[in-house]
Amino acid sequence: MMRLGDLKLFVRTVKLDSFSNAAREADLLPGQVSAAIKRLERELGIRLFARSTRSLRLTGEGETYLPSAITALEALAQGQERLHGEGNQLQGILQVAAPSDLGRNVLLSCFSQFRKEHPQLTLRLLISDRLANVFRDPVDIAIRYGCAEDASYVERPLAAWNRRVLVASPAYLSRHGRPAMLEDLSHHSCLLYMLNEHVYDNWKFGQQKIPVKGLLLSDDADVVRLWAIAGEGIAYKSWLDVREDVLSGRLEILLAQHLGELSPLNLVCPHRKQYSPAVRQLHQMLSRHLAPFAADMAAALANAEIPDSTA
Fold this sequence. Notes:
Blueprint: H1 4-16, H2 19-26, H3 30-44, E1 49-51, E2 56-58, H4 60-83, E3 92-98, H5 100-117, E4 121-127, E5 141-145, E6 154-159, E7 164-168, H6 170-176, E8 191-195, E9 198-200, E10 202-205, E11 208-211, E12 216-218, H7 221-229, E13 235-238, H8 239-248, E14 252-254, E15 265-269, H9 277-303
Parallel strand pairs: 3-4, 3-5, 8-12
Antiparallel strand pairs: 1-2, 5-15, 6-15, 7-13, 7-14, 8-9, 10-11
């Protein structure tokens, strides 16, 4: 029988990128984490990780199973929350910081629905790609890509499976052709994103870093997405940001044979005491909203056109 603790250790090992880190977090020995993963693999009848002395990475089967594991754990947590439900109507002020593209185009409807369900709650939404400092800035929680650098933060996953994908519009591809390999990106106009004065012009795919260049760059991720839709070049975007554009045909996924960089989405607050009923319920709503996006990403990558690099 599958153990819940083994499933949790699997998800944490993926996020922390090593058995040792997962063991340290859970106050276990690395060997205990390794044994838990092996039990889970026996139960599932698959290999979840490809192990070597220097690296640990998910197998293809592990990549496929990860979203289901995360969804199952979140569903169990939500069930526990319902058992202990909140007797009082949420009220007060909740201040939330969210990234530009994601906040406007993906999460805004959730925030609006959350307010309707809790009419006594005041919701202040700060939309910006600048990373909010949840200790210094006037926010209660931040929704952000990547892991918190400060270990004292409380971090709850929203979309741990999320990856970046290469995308371009049909109009751009008809004019400039479709890259057949990662190295071909050097011959294309790439749309660059800038954050805190740092230009992201080295795009990561597994262990590879591909230098790219372009004449258009912005510190607003939504601008980069709109440029891509307008046919200005190739963008390397979070799947969450471009899902609707890919499903509608406004953008096409390129080089799907190369898995893009993991870009997990998390909800972050400065202290466990601030993980209030309002924050818990917002986290649950956002998790439910984003859960179907994982299957959409897997299907889009599987159905994307893969060019013949030998042609």
